[in-house]
Amino acid sequence: MKNFSTVGPRLARTRAWTGLAAALALGSITLLAASAHAAPAACSFRADAPDQHKVVKGDTLWDIAGRFLDQPWCWPTVWGMNREEIANPHWIYPGQIIWFDRAAGRLRLGQPLAVSTDDGSGVVSQRLQPQARVLGVGQDAISSIPAHVIEPFLTQPLIIENDELTGAPRIVATPDNHVFIGKDDKAYVRGTLNGGPTFQAFRPGKPLKDPQTGQVIAYEAFYLGTLSLQAEAPPGSDVHTFIVQNAKEEMGKGDQLRPLPPMPMQNFVPHAPAQPVAARVLAIYGGVSHAGQNQVVSINRGQLDGLDIGAVLQLYHTGRTVNDETAPKSWLGLRTQQVKLPDEKVGNLFIFRVFKHVSYGLIMQVSAPVEVGDYAKSPE
Hints:
mainly beta, Thrombin, subunit H, Bact_Kbp, LysM_dom_sf, LysM
């Protein structure tokens, strides 16, 4: 990995940037606070990093970070961001400019600012200047990773942990004894409603076993659809009436309900976990044996292990154990030595939904198929 250097042909740019920073510091324009120290060696800028990038619709924080950095998860480091800013990065919008401050080894945010100049020839030109970072929340703010890829996973499918199934309301009857019901059909539900007017219907699915302990730590439930409460149970009854709002799969008697969870914040900055994490891939969504770019996997670590949304882990294949056929033979003429090959990095995992003991992650920058049992570790 090549570290950033300001010698040689870049010296002129360094002086120019130093002068610009000094001039702006004396003016009314405020730039992002930047540390006087360069980024850690692990967070080096790319050798071909551009001087600037204009943000366009469709960009993601991950994509932009990858233009400047060898490791996109180093984004907070080169911005000097604190934990609050990492969790709420709604401040980059299409049309703004990301500037590479080579003198400080930092990225800065600007916005196109038309400044008319006349060189005396009658030709008026315009230039861009860095401006203050504007904090705010808006729908146009760019997302961390492709929103359309993870959107279905933000509220479903469901991870059911511990005893969350206990006492969940369940469908006990359907109109005219239909085996299955769909959109706009009624469903009669029995159980205590501890939530709002909208519920998810689900069917318990396969258990998720920890690859290390073999114990079941959660269940991945099949998401069936959503239902809205039409009428609560009348006096003397414990049966509620629901209407199916939408049905992804057919639902029927025995299927269970739970309140629709709030949409979790999805626009977190890619960052390394706050504490070391060593996880294993539990399952690949869809029941397949291998996963590639932009596919979703679950891992056996969650909130209680220090993970949060936006954390980035590195994925590794476990090194195989092989016979060393080059080792000297024993007195029996056998070669019995075995060696373990190094673990091989195959990609990055962006964590976008976190439960207590389990998390969903989106595979990024993969170089080889990811398998159940692969390691997911804090970036080195």
